[in-house]
Write a structure and sequence with these properties.
The complex is a heterodimer.
Chain A lengths: L1 H30 L16 H6 L4 E5 L6 H17 L3 E4 L11 H10 L3 E4 L8 H9 L3 E5 L10 E4 L3 H16 L3 E7 L5 H16 L6 E8 L4 H14 L3 E6 L2 H12 L8 E4 L3 H9 L5 E4 L2 H17 L9 E3 L5 E3 L5 E3 L4 E4 L9
Parallel strand pairs in A: 1-2, 1-3, 3-4, 4-5, 5-13, 6-7, 6-8, 8-9
Antiparallel strand pairs in A: 10-14, 11-12
Helix pairs in contact in A: 3-11, 4-5, 6-7, 8-9
Chain B lengths: L1 H24 L2 H19 L6 H26 L7 H17 L4 H25 L4 H20 L9 H8 L11 H17 L1 H11 L1 H6 L4 H26 L11 H11 L11 H20 L4 H49 L1
Helix pairs in contact in B: 2-13, 3-8, 3-9, 3-11, 3-12, 3-13, 4-5, 4-6, 4-11, 5-6, 5-11, 8-9, 12-13, 12-14
The chains are: A alpha/beta, B mainly alpha.
């Protein structure tokens, strides 16, 4: 008797829990940005082909992981782009951890949902490949953004910037700020950081070859390991070792913030120029107090924005992902698909006292 | 004497069979089956797109690794031990697989060596637990980190992905229109093998005995050390196999594969009725536990429920599955006590009335 009543109880508990979770589902479904549309989840037996072929276009963003501040800005731009581009439904799903395999079940769920466009930042280029191929077989278009998937399993890859552009914009800024001559130094992340080293290599080449920079001399390269304290100490050391230093380039957000903090409290404030790649929210006070005149970074929101438009162009058949295809990305104008299906969002944005308050990331 | 006994003997025998059947129907594994079926029916009717062959493919592929690891875990936990290193063994086996295959070794040989690596990991856990006498919890927390570290040493930050297409196709393929993954065949055989060992052999009975009391089992002549070693070795072996499957399914051999899976496995096994104190559990219950968690996750994910909610629900389910039986037990004990008290009360009253 007691064992049967226990049985009934557990059964009830199970059913209640599941019903509760399904009730949550209903709330979840209203979160998506469809203003007033018969969204895809309403149709019980909506088959993928119906969705892909019909007027109702849906887009789903799968970032590397959720709850990451940078990702949130990218996705904010994505939502805006998706709305403007004319998607009826836009969703964001994704894992809590950025492990290689964690995205696969989300791709599978989207395949089953018959989503027209999947925009993904791949945690592992190959781990997501089979699942993406299956999604494509079901009619979905795949846009990789931020971090590329294997080119065999996506239609296009939307990349933030070209490495060379990042290098040149930093040189332009430092040259403007120090009047085109003098000693400069670089305060980078770690000694083997792939991105930073690529940019530094381009900067060195440009300094050696471009006559505009013939009076600028790179005297030192130091590494703050993307650690706030270490970067601060390296900045301090840099000034003591090179009294004639006119400017510092820090191509990393941690480095530029720490260096700015050091300079703002030292006698070099306003005398030694500092530029590089920084986050507007971290740098705002240093721009306002005159420590930093101008720095740069790409606008992550633009990445999401262009990805959404690229997805729309693919779904409409305007582009197929081959080199030379062109489409219009809303306010940002025309973009062209390059080699290997890569679309470049654009040059980095320069932030200074005039525009910094317009950005929040 | 015999005359009077024969007629009354028949009904008890009948009711004994009936009792056995109703006991089976109300047992924990049966309960888990009902819950699983109710979930499947609810999901099919309430979740759009759930009732498709594709669901079978994706859902089962999602749970294969957990399902595999849950089998030896059931045995290990029934004896009163635990193996927290399962996911790390899978990671190590994945890393070894990547490195050996890039090194040019034939695929069959690579898989064999991966399985041997798993067996060695299990042997390591087993020796320290059974023969050195350290608690399995402590040993496998250590090897959880150790094996993951070794995986990183073996393959570093690299990822290997160019495995034979036929092997990857087998790991992700399914039986035509049914949607049931091809790998379910070997997985099914492994489940049956574990069920036979646990429920139909003397060895299986000794595992339950050990879970109830290691001392008592030893005194009745069970070779407890050997049994603990064997269960932990089976855990290493099957976890390595799960690692091989994981690598092929995601066509990516990396050191961080299957990270954190040990907790999912233990959660599923406990949900399936295995006692964390040992001595209780069944293979079918664990299979249901894995599938229940799999179905809930899958159905909710289809509806794009945020991952945070999913994790919360799994956690709640687990707590309820552990707490519910003891709540029910103490409730029926309380009812029993009250009934007894009332009986005693009434006896006293009648006795009082009589004496008065």
């Amino acid at each position: 008797m007691s064992s049967t009543s226990r049985g009934r109880l557990s059964l009830k508990v199970g059913a209640i829990l599941f019903a509760a979770s399904l009730a949550l589902t209903a709330c979840g479904a209203t979160v998506n940005d469809s203003p007033a549309s018969p969204d895809t989840s309403a149709g019980t037996d909506a088959s993928p082909t119906e969705n892909a072929g019909g007027g109702d276009l849906s887009i789903t963003f799968i970032p590397k992981q959720l709850n990451n501040p940078y990702t949130d800005v990218v996705l904010g731009g994505g939502k805006k782009g998706a709305e403007e581009a004319g998607f009826t439904t836009s969703n964001v799903v994704g894992p809590l951890d950025a492990s290689a395999s964690s995205q696969v079940s989300f791709i599978n769920a989207e395949t089953q949902a018959g989503t027209s466009v999947i925009v993904i930042a791949a945690n592992d280029p190959d781990a997501v490949c089979a699942a993406l191929k299956e999604a494509r077989a079901g009619g979905a278009k795949i846009v990789a953004f931020d971090s590329d998937a294997n080119p065999d399993c996506r239609d296009v890859f939307v990349s933030q910037v070209v490495a060379k552009d990042v290098a040149t914009i930093q040189l332009e800024m430092i040259s403007e700020q120090i009047g085109g001559k003098g000693d400069i130094a670089i305060l980078s992340a770690t000694a083997n950081a792939t991105n930073q080293n690529e940019w530094i290599k381009f900067m060195e080449e440009e300094l050696a070859s471009n006559p505009d920079y013939k009076d600028i001399k790179l005297v030192s390269k130091v590494y703050g390991d993307d650690d706030d304290t270490k970067s601060f100490q390296e900045a301090q050391g840099l000034m003591q070792a090179n009294p004639n230093l006119k400017g510092i380039i820090s191509p990393t957000t941690v480095g530029i913030a720490a260096t700015a903090r050091y300079l703002s409290t030292s006698e070099y404030k306003g005398k030694v120029a500092l530029t590089g790649l920084g986050l507007p929210n971290e740098m705002r006070s240093f721009v306002k107090d005159g420590t930093v005149k101008e720095f740069a970074l790409w606008d992550p929101a633009q990445l999401g924005y262009v990805s959404a438009y690229a997805g729309k162009a693919l779904a409409d058949g305007t582009i197929t992902g081959k080199s030379g295809d062109k489409f219009t990305a809303g306010d940002m104008g025309e973009r062209e698909v390059g080699e290997n299906g890569i679309i470049i969002v654009g040059p980095p944005v320069r932030f200074n006292a005039d525009n910094i308050d317009k950005y929040d990331f | 004497m015999t005359d009077t006994l024969t007629p009354v003997a028949a009904p008890p025998a009948l009711s004994a069979t009936r009792g056995a059947i109703s006991r089976t129907l109300a047992s924990r594994p049966a309960l888990m089956t009902y819950i699983l079926l109710v979930l499947l029916i609810l999901a099919s009717t309430m979740v759009p797109r759930f009732a498709q062959p594709r669901t079978a493919t994706f859902l089962l592929l999602d749970v294969v690794a957990t399902l595999l690891m849950a089998m030896p875990m059931t045995l290990v936990m029934i004896t009163g031990d635990i193996d927290l290193s399962v996911a790390s063994v899978a990671g190590l086996s994945s890393a070894v697989m990547g490195v050996l295959f890039t090194g040019g070794m034939p695929f069959g040989g690579v898989v064999l060596i991966c399985l041997l690596v798993g067996l060695a990991c299990g042997l390591f856990n087993g020796l320290f637990t059974a023969y050195v006498g350290l608690p399995a919890l402590a040993v496998t927390i250590g090897t959880l980190a150790l094996f993951r570290g070794l995986a990183l040493v073996v393959i570093g930050d690299n990822a290997v992905s160019n495995f034979p297409p036929a092997a990857s196709a087998y790991a992700t393929g399914s039986f035509g229109a049914t949607g049931i993954p091809l790998v379910m065949l070997p997985v099914g055989l492994i489940i049956v093998a574990f069920a036979v060992v646990l429920h139909m052999t003397p060895f299986g009975r000794t595992l339950f005995a050990m879970g109830h009391s290691m001392e008592a089992a030893r005194f009745v002549g069970v070779n407890t050390k050997r049994a603990r070693l064997l269960t932990l070795m089976s855990s290493g072996l099957v976890s390595a196999l799960a690692g091989v499957f994981w690598t092929l399914r995601y066509s990516s051999a990396r050191s961080d594969n299957a990270t954190g899976l040990e907790l999912v496995v233990i959660a599923a096994v406990v949900l399936g009725g295995v006692s964390v104190f040992g001595g209780k559990g069944s293979i079918w219950g664990s299979v249901c536990g894995v599938l229940i968690i799999g179905v809930i996750n899958y159905a909710l994910r289809l509806n794009r429920i945020p991952e945070v909610v999913l994790v919360t629900i799994t956690g709640l389910l687990l707590i309820i599955s552990v707490v519910a039986p003891s709540v029910v037990a103490s409730w029926s004990a309380w009812r029993h006590r009250r009934r007894r008290a009332r009986e005693i009360d009434s006896t006293i009253t009648t006795a009082g009335a009589l004496s008065a």
